[in-house]
Structures are given as structure tokens and as C-alpha cells.
Design brief:
Blueprint (H helix, E strand, L loop, with lengths): L3 E6 L3 H12 L1 H8 L3 E7 L3 H8 L4 E3 L2 H6 L5 E4 L6 H11 L3 E4 L2 H18 L3 E2 L10 H8 L5 E7 L2 H13 L3 H11 L7 H4 L2 H15 L9 E2 L7 H9 L2 E12 L2 E12 L11 E8 L3 E8 L3 H18 L30 E11 L4 H11 L4 E8 L6 E8 L2 E2 H12 L9 E5 L4
Helix pairs in contact: 1-13, 5-6, 6-11, 8-9, 14-15
Length: about 425
Amino acid sequence: MKPIQVGLLGIGTVGSGTFTVLNRNQEEIRRRAGRGIEITMVADLDVERARAVVGERARVVADAREVIANPEIDIVVELIGGYGIAKTLVLEAIRQGKHVVTANKALLAVHGSEIFEAARERGVMVAFEAAVAGGIPIIKALREGLTANRIEWVAGIINGTTNFILSEMRSKGLDFAAVLKQAQALGYAEADPTFDIEGIDAAHKVTIMSAIAFGVPVQFDKAYVEGITTLQAADIRYAEQLGYRIKLLGITRRRENGIELRVHPTLIPSQRLIANVEGAMNAVVVQGDAVGSTLYYGKGAGAEPTASAVVADLVDITRLHTADPDHRVPHLAFQPGSLQDTPILSIDEVITAFYLRLQVADQAGVLAKITGILAEHEISIDAVLQRESAEGEKQTDLIILTHDTVEGRMRAALAQMQALPTVLAPIVRIRKEELK
């Protein structure tokens, strides 16, 4: 049988890895797919660099539209990234009747509904395993492996840069700025790390997982996003003393009145497996009603881990290339007509527990006033820790862990506590999840 012909748009880190893995494991892939899969065209603005990677094994062009227009190309792999030209090229490929594989989480989180609808109308597939958590097959698990389950929640460490920074801050007691410089020197963080450290990259990924888990459209604009730039070494240390670790989590949870969709630093009990994921590794926990809790762990980035997911998508499309479009796995796991317009809850409606650190005057009655305000707002306390403040003898750090409460209620309580004359600095507030 004639091999499936693939056109590759962009041959940077992931593109080079994809070309290498596909050629190195060609025989194994052919045995699994039932026919060969060959990258026969590559488009990249840096033609000389591209030729240095592919040699004579593929035709190299500067214009991606040449690849899309080639009638011999069955699948287009988009590895350009971003929202702009990548969207245009993906939609053009779909209109030309090409299947698409992409690792572009930003594109899908923002424009996924439009892209999936265009693919459905044209009868082609859009595969995107590499868009979330690199080589971890979390998309396939949610779309297929857990089909029998009503998913209750998904929580993941889905950005390796921030996880590396938090791991280093915990193990070495360093502040954020110092570890960020180290991460940049080691190549874990970009020169402009904004998407990573502000939580935007993780929010793109959890938006996609939320859509698949709950059968709703992708709605990145409704996600709550908070990064790690204001985290302090003192809070990581106090969390450790209380039996918790701080991770940047992407969380999406089904509630009776809607769906939570949020990214923020989170305290997790240190005995949870996900709390012990260190360095640049990724992990995702999925809670289903039938299977219970499942954990997916591995490398979330890098040339060959991400290439592994890209090639897996190529194999899936090759297997289903001639199948009736109505009998393929839907892009978001649920049949297109069955997607629900379930509301995404605002952050004020989210239910979670909290870690609070207050720098207060070392005076009698201060704790009573603080706990009184919490009680007034019907917020119950789980634990209290008092430590001498680094600022001086007349001040103390008061650390409070609460039970679950509505975020809006906590926000009102914080405003009232912050106004107390005995509260000497801005209150630190970090959300806490037990992930039971």
C-alpha cells in the first residue's frame, strides 16, 4: 500500500524531533499503522537549516502554501506556533481536504471551536495530542480511554518551566527571581518567559482538557489565570512545615452550577503523588466516577517527547484515513451536536480552601480579631501556625489554613482583615486543594 505522505510546516525543535523519530522508527510505525508514513515536504523560512536536517529525504520549500497545495500530501503537520499565520494555514489545509496534526495549544485554546467545526464540515481530522503535556498521552486518555466515565475533575502540572522553578525554590530556599535566571541559563525558560510564569501556557492546556472532559466548547477567554511571579520562598517553606507543597496547577472541575476553569499556585498535601513531581516533568490527575483517580506522568516538552505525540497522531490518522468521518472519534470526545453550553464559573464562585499568611503586630487579641472575621464570613479554620517574622521582634507571621469556602466570601474577609491596623503588610493568599 502506498505510504501516507506528510507535509511538515516548521522544522524547529519539535519538527526536527518528529522527522528524526519518524525515520528512526519507520519499520515499527509501519507495523502499527498498516502502511508507511513519510514526510515528503518541509516548509520553513530558514531553508538552509531545514535542508541540513532532512537532507535528500524530503523536498524543502520556504512557502507553507506550496505544501498545502500539493495534491500528494495527505496530512499537514503544523509546528509553527502562535495564533496568526498558523491559524490561516491550518484552515487552508482543512479546506484543501488535508488532515491536520498540530502541537499548537494556544491556537486550539483560542480558535479550536472554529477549527474543529471546519474540519467536521470537510470530513477531515485534526489531531492534537502534542498540544498538551508533550509526550504524555493525556488527550487520548480523556477522549478514548476514559469514555465510560463521568469525569469529575482534572488537575495537572502542565508547564515544566514553572515546575522546575518551584522545585528549585523549595529545595534550595531561593527566591523566584534567582531561580528564574537559573532556569533561563539552563534552557528551561525562554528569554521572555511570560507565557510560562504568568500561567498562560498552562491555561491554554487546561482549557483544551476541560473541553474534552466535560463536552463543552474551548473557552480560554473564561479561564482564571494566575502565575507564580509573586510567590515567596517563605510561603514555600511554611507550606512544607504544614505538610504541603506548592505547585502551579491547571484545574477544571464539574460543579452543579457550572465548570471551574482555573490556573494558579496551589498547596497540595505532600503525600499526594502529584505533589512529588519535580523538575521540568509534567503530571495530570483525572478523577472519574467509575475508574477513580488516574495519574499520567512524563516529559511535558522537548524534541523527542513531543515528537512522540505528533507521530502517534500521524499513526491514528493513517489507521482511520479511509474510515467514514461519522464513525471517527470526535475532536472533543463528544459528538459535535452533543456539546453543552455549560457556564464557566467566575473565580468568585469557585469553591476551594486557602493558605493565608498575615504579617501582624505581636499584640494580644490580634488572632482573635482575625479568626472573628473569618467566622463572620462563615469560613472555618483547619490549622494555625505562628512564627517569628523576619521583619523584627514586634511582628509575627500568622499562617492560617482554611476549609473549603466560596472564593467571593474569602475575598470579602481578606478585605476586612487587610484594613485592620495590626495587619502590617499585604496578606498572602494561596489556594489549597486536597485532590482526594
